[in-house]
Amino acid sequence: DVKVTQSSRYLVKRTGEKVFLECVQDMDHENMFWYRQDPGLGLRLIYFSYDVKMKEKGDIPEGYSVSREKKERFSLILESASTNQTSMYLCASMGGVRPQHFGDGTRLSIL
Amino acid sequence: RKEVEQDPGPFNVPEGATVAFNCTYSNSASQSFFWYRQDCRKEPKLLMSVYSSGNEDGRFTAQLNRASQYISLLIRDSKLSDSATYLCVVNPPPGEYGNKLVFGAGTILRVKS
């Protein structure tokens, strides 16, 4: 079974802090994704990566950056956290045209 | 127009009922289709893929109508444990930068005893 692991289930940070969310997958998938999910808005794609060191903006990249130095790891960075970035963050990986597999999610609160 | 559209519901049904959800997609060249299930405060999990000829998995039946660009999910003999949000998911043609899925906002199902 595919395993996608996110570093934290719950995280509380302060406004202006730099926040790192880590995601690791064990299936050698080339594609990895970061989403945020808010009530009534569904899943919104922040960034995705189709190969090491390759990244593409999703639908809502503002205020975020990403890093993919190794194939198995995809990091989401909030450069200067703001309260409107309080959300559930979900990482996913995908090989080819197969379905995506998600991590457990990180509930991030920015105070 | 959204790439993938679903009725948000909620659909409130009694145990044992049959319920159906529809979903429409905008890109006629989309390649593959899925239904995901998401429980409250949990991550989405793949429920089933949707094949052109239609497919069944126990009480769940998925169908695809490419001409009308919609996908359906039918749940028979609903159980309390079927209560969840059901996400319609479409794989558009691969872009210049690889493959991704597009998620609908989800349909809420509540099964009551």
Describe the structure.
The complex is a heterodimer of chains A (111) and B (113). Chain A contains no helices and eleven strands. Chain A is mostly beta strands and 111 residues long. In chain A, strands 2, 4, 5, 6, 9, 10 and 11 form a seven-stranded mixed sheet that branches. A four-stranded antiparallel sheet of chain A has the order 1-3-8-7, with no helix packed on it. Chain A is globular and about 40 Å long. Chain A starts with a strand and ends with a strand. In chain B, strands 2, 4, 5, 9, 10 and 11 form a six-stranded mixed sheet that branches. Chain B has a five-stranded antiparallel sheet with strand order 1-3-8-7-6, with no helix packed on it. By secondary structure, chain B is mainly beta. In chain B, a hairpin with a 2-residue loop joins strand 6 (55-57) and strand 7 (60-65). Chain B has strands spanning 4-6, 11-14, 19-25, 32-38, 45-50, 55-57, 60-65, 70-75, 84-91, 102-103, 107-112. In chain B, 0% of the residues lie in helices and 51% in strands. The chains are: A mainly beta (111), B mainly beta (113). The A-B interface holds A 30-31, 33, 35, 40-43, 45, 48, 50-51, 54, 56, 88, 90, 94, 96-97, 99-105 and B 8, 31-32, 34, 36, 41-46, 49, 87, 89, 91, 94, 97-101, 103-106.
Q: What's the gist of this structure?
A:
The complex is a heterodimer of chains A (111) and B (113). With 111 residues, chain A is mostly beta strands.
Provide the residue-averaged pLDDT of chain A.
93
Proportion of residues in extended strands of chain B: over 45%
Name the overall outline of chain A: globular
Straight-line distance between termini of chain B: 37 Å
Q: What is the chain-wise order of helices and strands of chain B? A: EEEEEEEEEEE
**Biggest sheet overview of chain A:** 7 strands, mixed
- State the helicity of chain A in percent bands: under 10%
Radius of gyration of chain B: 14 Å
* Spatial extent as radius of gyration of chain A: 13 Å
| Poorly predicted runs of chain A | none
Could you give the distance between the termini of chain A?
Answer: 37 Å
Instruction: Please state roughly what percent of the residues of chain A sit in beta strands, choosing from under 5%, 5-15%, 15-25%, 25-35%, 35-45% or over 45%.
Output: over 45%
What structural class do you assign from the helix and strand content of chain A? Answer: mainly beta
Average pLDDT of chain B, rounded to a whole number, is 92
Number of helices of chain A: 0
Oligomerization:
heterodimer
Helices and strands of chain A, in order, run as EEEEEEEEEEE
Class by alpha and beta content of chain B: mainly beta
**Low-confidence segments of chain B:** none
Q: What's the number of extended β-strand segments of chain B? A: 11
